[in-house]
Amino acid sequence: MRSLKFADEQKRLSLADAVGRLGLSFRGNGRGVYGKFNRELSGISEEYGATEFLVLSYFPLVPLGAYRVSREQGSKELQFVSKQPLNWLQIAWTWMKSLGVVAAVGFAIVLIAEMSRHR
User: Fold this and answer.
1) Confidence (pTM)
2) How far is it, in rounded angstroms, from Cα 34 to Cα 64?
3) How far apart are CA 118 and CA 20, in angstroms?
4) Per-residue DSSP letter, 11
């Protein structure tokens, strides 16, 4: 039993090494994990599928990999459980949400410009 836990921990550590350091610069460029599909709660921890993206100005552009991740609720620290095949439904949903945010910001800018012009 103890050797099984050790093997699982070694697998997680090697997967974390393979993923490397995630993070975005202050301008929002880099690599980041987006999405939360097939979420399962177990006590105070949660496990879900997420996709690693190449990110430009906080916008997820190119999917680099998909992983099953685990974390304690409320924590930002992710533990990579396993590598998975890309989930194109999750990728499309992430792109749609991101485009929605861009569209909402664009609409707000146009609305504010129109309101200030009519004063």
Assistant:
1) 0.72
2) 11
3) 52
4) H
